[in-house]
Amino acid sequence: MSRTDDKLAAVRAAMTEQGAELVALGPGAHMHWVLGWHPHPDERLTLLAIGRDSAHFIVPSVNAEQAGANAGLPLITWRDEDGPEEALRTLAQKVGNVTQLVLDETMRTDFSLPLIRTFDRAEPVFADGLIGALRMIKDETELAALRSSAAVADRAMEAGFSAIRPGLTESQVAQAMRDSFAEEGAAVAFTLCASGPNGAFPHHATGDRVLEEGDAIVFDIGAGFGGYPSDITRMAAVGSLPEGYQEVHDVVERAWQAAAAAARPGVRAHEVDDAARKVITDAGYGEYFVHRTGHGLGLEVHEPPYLTSSSQTVLQEGMVFSIEPGIYIPGRFGIRLEDIVIMGAEGVEVLSSLPRAVRLAGDGA
Amino acid sequence: MSRTDDKLAAVRAAMTEQGAELVALGPGAHMHWVLGWHPHPDERLTLLAIGRDSAHFIVPSVNAEQAGANAGLPLITWRDEDGPEEALRTLAQKVGNVTQLVLDETMRTDFSLPLIRTFDRAEPVFADGLIGALRMIKDETELAALRSSAAVADRAMEAGFSAIRPGLTESQVAQAMRDSFAEEGAAVAFTLCASGPNGAFPHHATGDRVLEEGDAIVFDIGAGFGGYPSDITRMAAVGSLPEGYQEVHDVVERAWQAAAAAARPGVRAHEVDDAARKVITDAGYGEYFVHRTGHGLGLEVHEPPYLTSSSQTVLQEGMVFSIEPGIYIPGRFGIRLEDIVIMGAEGVEVLSSLPRAVRLAGDGA
């Protein structure tokens, strides 16, 4: 059975269970998960339509050749001059009665409304509960790709550490990480460099601030490699640590460890968040931990499961997510330690091989 | 009147004309055109809601501060724990009766379906006919930004010409253009380098082909600068022209000139396409001109008006579009000449200052 056949079988089992006769996915991550490919999205109706015992790819005729080669499914094509309505009618004839239509929730509205009108007796529901749930459990190929991507990010992080010098700007240091990613053929997604007080903003925009002796620096970087993203956060300091830094770093590290220890198959996602939050709150920094403990990572850099204070998602073997507690002290510094982990039967496997200790850098060595 | 007030007034005039009481835009180009800003899109409901005499920004509370600073409009916020339904009910109370709801056609379906359910007595129509039509006419600020962006692209093109050497790969030459864009702070969108027979594929993926003496080369490049894109195509040749090249280049240049001469306010877009196509067809190359003559350019690199063989769009002063006829001869070479032009009262203004003549390059000079 091919990879796509495998995924289609999993989708159909879930469709049967929830009573859906048709799943319609636009060019995006859900489609990519099923086909291992998706076309560049544009304004022309392009759909993967999965029925209980059929699958079709609806595509504008100008893209038919590419779609045929990549999707490996029967095509329903339409021409710019005619518009896509007839293609949707053809689909309706092929799939028969539809009482529940599962729609890609990320799909453009000018794709979904014609679908809803064509299947006007079907209840529309979103694919995040069906495809999204399946996507949370990674297969071995995906895990291997995520490990490779993490290794590329480790080397970019090292390039960032090596670039640190007093007098350089955040942007200049970030460029070294971008260059490292690019040299390995990775598609840079983000290279955050937040120095000194800027570190206290979790989503600081890397800019022209000049690095000074004694600055703490947050590096939060990620890139696509082999179709899968990376996402890692480490701390550095320019020459020496700011006053009071190490104590706070130790709290964040203990929060990380507590979260990792709490993560077990069968545990609810909020219990991992609870564990990290308790360490930080008990240490007196609760008000400075302003975000969730983690997010899933797969075809997308943010996807389920989300490790929030309210998530009831049950962790399972094969899930992949970040553990990234942080403490952000306005005017002084911010500290976040982020690792991507794979949920194994006995506990988490950390993808990065870099220690989470703060790296003293910038001495020109 | 602020820029946003100006845009809101234009939107409301169009709403009155077509009988719409509410326009709902997601984080994308339509929103950007109205506000001069849009937040990074994610899965959480974020909307600009324009009524006949109100405007609100619906936003998750975690992003409220950023939205308040940038949108300059009353906010309706919602919290992750509660979901966005109450925010939509609040909106409904504020705007009153809605018989026609204008939806951003690019909006995620999990944004639009809750809107349609909230305004369940309204007819949903798409914003491309309303905001899209307004966006076609650029204001002076936009024209200035497009001119600056084009100048950055001209310099990247020169960098590409200078990089040409027999023995380098397409990718290596493209890198010189990427570096030029990056040095000026432009966000590279595409740097196509198609050499020799690869030029015959209009959307060739720049790769490892090694440049040889006598190759024709297509450069098609663009980058975002000051929020506005560039898009230009020029031809070069390595050392000497391939046999029969100049004759075909002259045909494409005459097609470009004919299209430019046909472009006048009041003319339909297809007449410009017709003019270019006639020159190429009369010269015997009609079957090798496989695409439309041009596309609009503004906040997006492809947007209305489209210069196709069937477009009835009437050209107006202030529109901006490409004129880019091409002839692609399989196994030999492809020639495309693309300039972005502003439709003026008397004719087109070309943004690039680079001649469209083929550039002989690669002699190491």
Q: Which pair of protein chains has the largest interface, and what are the residue counts?
A: A-B, 19 and 19 residues
Count of separate DSSP helical elements of chain A: 10
Helical proportion of chain A, percent range: 25-40%
Strand portion of chain A: 15-25%
| Order of strands in the sheet with most strands of chain A | 4-3-2-1-5-6
Oligomer: homodimer
Query: Any idea what the radius of gyration of chain A is?
Result: 23 Å
Low-confidence stretches of chain A: none
Characterise this structure.
The structure is a homodimer of 365-residue chains. By secondary structure, the first copy, chain A, is α+β, with helices and mostly antiparallel strands. The first copy, chain A, contains ten helices and 18 strands. The first copy, chain A, has two domains: 3-135, Creatine Amidinohydrolase, Chain A, domain 1 (3-Layer(aba) Sandwich); 140-360, Creatinase/methionine aminopeptidase superfamily (Creatine Amidinohydrolase), CATH 3.90.230.10. In chain A, strands 4-3-2-1-5-6 form a six-stranded mixed beta sheet, sandwiched between helices. The radius of gyration of chain A is 23 Å and the shape is elongated. In chain A, α9 runs antiparallel to α10 (269-282). The interface between A and B is medium-sized, with 19 and 19 residues.
